Amino acid sequence: MPDSAGRLVPIETVRPEHQLEDAMVRKIIHHASILSDEIARFRGHTFDDVGALLDLLAEKYGARRGGAKGNVTFTSYDGCLKVTVQVQDQISFGPELQAAKTLVDACITQWSNGSLPQLRALVEHAFAVDKEGRINRAALFALRRLQIDDPEWVSAMQAIADAIRVVGSKQYVRFHRRVSPAAVWEPITIDLASA
Question: Pfam families, alphabetically (predicted)?
Answer without folding.
Answer: DUF3164
